[in-house]
Amino acid sequence: MNHGASATPPAAQTKDPDSTNHYTFNGWSGYTNITENKTITASFTATAHTFTAFVAHTQLPTCTEAGYDTYKCTGCTKTTTVPVQELGHSFTNYVSNNNATCLEDGTKTAKCDRCDATDTITDEGSALGHSFTNYVSNNNATCLEDGTKTAKCDRCDATDTITDEG
């Protein structure tokens, strides 16, 4: 090469992406007008990663654990994983446990639509109320007054006494 002539630049270079940026080769600096030994330097432009290209569901979320999705940078091959919030349980089909009593509401239970977890809640308004159907005379009527008759609840030990007219 002739003294003072321009040098032919080396081939374009690459620089691996780091955790923040990917790099575009701009060219070489310091290779024109060579008059002595020179160090030439590759010039790169740093561009922040933009992870918008969806790649895959790396780990699907469950009711109780977060999942992860993988995204690729639109400017290089670097990927990142992004957490996906756990789904939470979904209880939609409650079935009565058939445990209501005459005076107390029972419960109902649902199985999660996605897993085996269950949820039991009060079955509002499910109390059965007493059922008095078989009244028996107390044999206490007099010539001047009606007597009474008593029935035991069909479901519990409660009793009900009413006037036995006639």
Q: Keywords for this structure?
A:
rod-shaped, mainly beta, 166 residues, three-stranded antiparallel beta sheet, single chain
Describe what this molecule looks like in 3D:
With 166 residues, the protein is mainly β. Helices cover 0% and strands 39% of the residues. It contains no helices and eleven strands. The chain has strands at 21-29, 41-48, 51-59, 67-73, 79-84, 95-96, 107-111, 118-122, 136-137, 147-152, 159-164. It has a three-stranded antiparallel sheet with strand order 3-4-5, with no helix packed on it. Strands 6-7-8 form a three-stranded antiparallel sheet, with no helix packed on it.
What gap, in angstroms, lies between the N and C termini?
A: 136 Å
Low-confidence parts lasting 5 or more residues at pLDDT below 50? none
Total number of helical segments? 0
Mean pLDDT: 91
Report the biggest beta sheet as strand number plus sense, adding barrel if it closes. Answer: 3 strands, antiparallel
Structural class: mainly beta
Number of strands: 11
Strand content: 35-45%
- Helical residues, percent: under 10%
Radius of gyration: 42 Å
Concise overview:
Helices cover 0% and strands 39% of the residues. With 166 residues, it is mainly β.
